[in-house]
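User: I'm putting together notes for a lab meeting next week and I want to include a structural view of one of the chains we've been expressing. I don't have a solved structure, so I'd like a prediction I can at least talk through. The sequence is below, exactly as it appears in our construct file.
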Amino acid sequence: MILIIIMIFALTAYATNVNLGSPAKVYDLLVEAAKTHPVEGNEQGSYLTMRSKEGAIFFVINIGECLRPASRPMPFPLAPQCAGY
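Assistant: Thanks for the context. Below is the predicted structure for the 85-residue chain, given as structure tokens.
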């Protein structure tokens, strides 16, 4: 049910919103915002980057969380947490 609500919100925001209008317009606005208000620590200050210090820390923490159940005596009941369950 929550996924349906999120999808409806995303479709109305990206497709019918007066300020956004389309995914291309959202992209253009994000690029423009990165030029006026760059994000410190991100590649070229972009909001649309995979290269950032915080992103690398988040990646390491999530990999650690996914590997943690493998070190326990009963890893199977805890394993689904990696898949977002």
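A couple of points you could mention at the meeting. Helices lie at 2-16, 23-36, 53-67. The radius of gyration is 18 Å.

User: Perfect, that's what I needed.
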